[in-house]
Amino acid sequence: MNKYVIETDKLNKYYGEKHALKNLSIKVKAGKTTAIVGSNGAGKSTLFKILLGVLAPSDGTATVLGMPTNSLSPKLRGDIGFVNEEHSLPFWMPVGKLVTIHKALYVNWNDAVYNDVVAFFNVAKTQRISELSRGERAGVNLAMALAQQPKLLLLDEPTLGLDVVAKRAFLEALISIQDLSSCGIVYCSHSMDEVERVADDLLIMEKGALRFHSTPDEFVERVSAWMVDFEEKMPNKENFPGLLNINRIDDSYQLVVLDQNDSYKEHLLELGASNVFKVPVNLDKAINSILAQNHASKAL
Amino acid sequence: MINITVGDSRPIFKQIVDELHIKIVKGDLPPGTKLPSVRGLAIQLTINTNTVAKAYKELTALGVVEAKTGLGLFTRSPERSASEKEQMQQVKQAVSHFIADIAGTNIDQETILELIENELNTLYRINDK
Fold it and tell me: Mapping DSSP to helix (H, G, I), strand (E, B) and coil, where does residue A273 land?
């Protein structure tokens, strides 16, 4: 069994002049949940399209379950589950009928998995898709993707637009299968709350390139935040090693920095700062500081 | 049974370790109490099963829970087996985390010390019983 369900090597994608993916080299482990986060336009959708074999790489390679994505066999395609935020299912069809059709399409279909997952949602087989709420549609979609017993499950913002109850049901259903399979799960989301709950591994993408790859906990460890006052003019930002982001809060500044230890305090004091103290950083703040890094200059 | 806060500066696995550890030391979970299964607690808290497994592993390493083959994980009486130096290290680390967490609040030192003292009193009174 392959250790990685996805491997890309120096993957590039151009749309005309636009460089959508830049030398992307990533590895996604089997049996783990990997979250991919990034601002809009970070290249997540382009990456998904390449992984699904819908788009061809311009340059470099992408393999899924050991096969190049531009030559995925029908059998291998059956090993990839995909759920996106649309949850677009044929609205006129009763749920039971839809399930029967899917069952015929996938050789590894497992009724027990379908029933276990769909049990997290209040869905009857006789209901038409059009009668389901968005959350219930998401549930059916997830249950069907899992019932095909995929080796790779791609989830592209699956909880977008769901209410809190449906979101919770979706996550619970996902967690209920996490330890039961060796399936690699890729979870794309803008919700740091969800990332913190489900992710073993974290990939942060920015403008088509990979910025970070580590566990969420290790990533948060690397980021620290400091509140400081500057009576005189604030020094130029080149004076702050590891600087990710600066925010003005009332008369003080909050500096978010990468890979700096507690001796950073002395450094700040030497620069003429006063009232220096360290403030806690959570995953949300750490990730947003990376994504907002390009705006750091504007804050000054 | 336990609460976690998503968005906290402490990782979720650490929150589980701390909360269960305190409950065991305080006696809220007497020795021999069965803990929920990894999957059960994961679904209950809506968090990754690996996160719960990691927390349970750490609690086992701390010697406050033990696995009974085929039965699950049970609490045991906390042993004070760590050396004094290790214990000191542990306390120092906990204190620095605590300080980082409260930095930025406007609560005065006296009130904070009082709160700590109350907690310590509760802890040791129960342990001495």
Answer: strand
